[in-house]
Amino acid sequence: MPSMPAVSRCSWAESDPLNLAYHDQEWGIPIRDDRQLFELLCLEGAQAGLSWITILRKRDGYRRAFDGFDPLKVAAFDERDVERLMADAGIVRNRAKIASVIGNARALLALTDEIGPFSERLWSFVDGKPIQNRWEGMGDVPAETDASRAMSRDLKRRGFSFIGPTVAYAFMQSAGLVNDHVVTCYRHAELAAGG
Q: Which of 14, 49, 148, 165 has the fewest CB atoms within 10 Å of its CB?
């Protein structure tokens, strides 16, 4: 990881060491693994109304609480599991958000039974390859796009929740469906080159 003074980064990355590591090592790297995509989709939904750093600080708690985001295991959770999770300080204790993870696991399993891999469905919204944006500053980055609105509509229709167009776009950024590092950030060129 390059040292702070040596490189330019997206401004949000420098607010916390966890954000910095996430920015440099994860954010915007294309993900095509169904389980990893499911985890990220659920974490982005959990973030709604909160800051991403709150979720990063609780990510290990989420992984433990939701059995490593194994959709088969999470889909089998019942009301006892919801009550257990409501008492778990390692996650955001919001009943609707907890229920959405369980519901999203069930929706994911139904989607994969119907049309195949989750990753293929998600990547279809960007024609299978990352969109390479060229934003000059973070203020230029939109909160949602036509692609995120289409993804949101499709996933909601299939039973997913906590996936509005803004959450869908944040997910697309995180999962590398779009390269939204600003052009002055060292990661922009690396990701644009496939790195």
A: 49
Q: Please give the Cα distance from 192 to 45 (Å, whole number).
A: 27
* 169 assigned to active site: no
Among the options 27, 39, 44, 62, which is catalytic?
Answer: 44
End-to-end CA distance of the chain: 14
pLDDT in tens, 6-60: 789 999 998 899 999 999 999 999 999 999 999 999 999 999 999 999 999 999 9
Domains of the chain: 8-192 (1.10.340.30)
Residue among 12, 27, 52, 135 flagged as catalytic: 52
Look up 22 and say whether it is catalytic: yes
| Contacts of residue 120, Cβ cutoff 8 Å, sequence gap at least 6 | none
Return the C-alpha torsion angle 52, 58, 60, 63, nearest 10.
-80
